[in-house]
UniProtKB/TrEMBL annotation, chain A:
Identification of the protein by name: ABC transporter ATP-binding protein
PROSITE patterns (alphabetical): ABC_TRANSPORTER_1, ABC_TRANSPORTER_2
Pfam families tied to this protein: ABC_tran
Occurrences of domain ABC transporter (ranges): 32-270
């Protein structure tokens, strides 16, 4: 099967390359799909079903937020979707290919080429500069040094940190580190970006920066699945799935065209 | 207040004294904030509006006889409409709490369905606030206002989570591991 999600995103918004438009093949199926997904930890009576039978279709270009209280299984779900953990039951499909039954090496290659990860604690390599951190996964995926360098410069520019390319992570703020981590996640033009509490360590201003960046990715058609416990972050998504005890309790599409009608009521101008 | 009283009468006809006791249970220590005459005033208004009707009188141990009220057909309709209507982004905590209690007592709506509907509404409001905060023309001052609005909505959403846990009779985080 061919992968049908559009790879990558335009350097500038508004370029006439179909950004935000329906892509050829996008209707063929979800870019990411979970079928009857379950993950058990422990055995017998102490067995815990962290994920307890989840069916989920993520269409290309969707920004999906997974919410829920601590221990609801949302991080486990993300790890299963990203091939970082194997399900006890069920299947994970990425770009039309089943990935949960791949061998370790094939799975690692799939992760590197088709997925981008963003973590709460950034997970940057402290000894490498910002640019080197971004470049590394491209080189590991087989890009030429020249291509990797070019792509890195482009991404650093995109996340607004072109002037920090030679800084070490320790010389950057939390928000800047996370933006580097996002650039790194994007370097191989992944089908899907998976983000686990991407703003968990950030203050309000840095959180807005990250959300703005996600908004630009979404406008460029990037599929993004994020796990968050912050309703303000989830509210910027196209769709919010709430997990309870390892199963979806609610699945809501957020209308992005309501303007400020509700806020008008909230601010109560009529009184 | 009228809607709450009406919904409580759907379950069974009651007199003002019993109604007040029910409300006091639902409000707990906050029941003290309820004016003693409020229930009777509300009943009178509902009767005038043709939404309740006196079905009988009960002799009290002391004092005047107690008028027992039941909803009219129009009263039932009003309760159904109240349960179906969205409470609006400004609804306060007490109003929604009493609505959940009344929904359960009267059996006219599923409290969890009301919680779900409310969550969607709040998330949509929050989405508007966040989109506004991310808009290019949101300056520092306006951003501060939007942060206040967003934090308030988040507080409402967290309270709804607690509502959901209690009304669904489930315990929080029974399963799962790690940081979720």
């Amino acid at each position: 099967m061919t992968r049908n999600g559009r790879r990558g995103w335009p350097r500038r918004r508004g370029m006439d390359d179909g950004a935000g438009a329906v892509r050829p093949g996008a209707a063929a199926g979800p870019v990411l799909r979970a079928v009857g997904l379950a993950r058990v930890y422990g055995e017998d009576e102490s067995a815990i079903w962290a994920v307890d039978g989840i069916d989920l279709d993520v269409p290309a270009g969707q920004m999906l937020a997974v919410m829920g209280p601590s221990g609801c299984g949302k991080s486990t779900l993300l790890q299963l979707l990203g091939g970082l953990d194997r399900p006890t039951e069920g299947e994970v499909w990425l770009g039309g290919q089943r990935i949960d039954d791949l061998g370790e090496r094939a799975l690692a290659r799939m992760r590197r080429r088709c997925l981008g990860f963003v973590f709460q604690a950034y997970h940057l390599i402290d000894e490498l500069t910002a640019a080197e951190n971004v470049e590394l996964p491209a080189l590991l995926a087989g890009a030429s040094p020249r291509t990797a360098r070019h792509r890195t410069a482009e991404l650093l520019d995109r996340v607004g940190l072109a002037d920090r390319a030679r800084h070490l992570p320790s010389q950057l703020s939390g928000g800047q580190r996370q933006r580097i981590a996002i650039a790194r996640a994007l370097v191989n033009k992944p089908l899907v970006v998976l983000a686990d509490e991407p703003t968990g360590n950030l203050d309000s201003a840095a959180t807005l920066d990250i959300l703005r960046l996600f908004g630009e990715l979404r406008a460029a058609g990037q599929t993004l699945v994020m796990v968050t416990h912050d309703e303000r972050v989830a509210a910027t998504a196209d769709r919010v799935v709430s997990l309870r005890d390892g199963v979806p309790a609610d699945d809501t599409a957020l209308d992005s065209d309501t303007g400020t009608a509700r806020l008008g009521t909230l601010l109560n101008w009529e009184n | 207040m009228q809607d709450v009283v009406l919904a409580l009468l759907v379950k069974e006809p009651l007199h003002g004294y019993d109604l007040r006791k029910r409300l006091t249970v639902a409000l707990g220590p906050l029941g003290e904030t309820l004016n003693a005459g409020q229930v009777y005033v509300t009943l009178t208004r509902l009767e005038k509006a043709g939404l309740v009707v006196q079905v009988r009188e009960e002799a009290a141990v002391r004092g005047p006889k107690r008028k027992v009220f039941a909803p009219t057909a129009a009263g039932y309709e009003r309760v159904a409409a109240w349960m179906a209507e969205s409470v609006g982004p400004r609804a306060d905590v007490t109003e929604f709490h009493l609505k959940l209690v009344a929904a359960r007592e009267s059996g006219t709506a599923d409290p969890l369905a009301l919680v779900d509907a409310r969550r969607r509404e709040l998330m949509s409001s929050l989405a508007e606030a966040q989109r506004a905060a991310l808009a290019p023309d949101a300056g520092a001052e306006a951003g501060l206002l939007l942060e206040g609005v967003a934090l308030r909505l988040r507080a409402d959403l967290r309270w709804l989570e607690a509502c959901e846990r209690v009304w669904s009779g489930r315990t929080p985080g029974g399963k799962g591991r790690g940081n979720g």
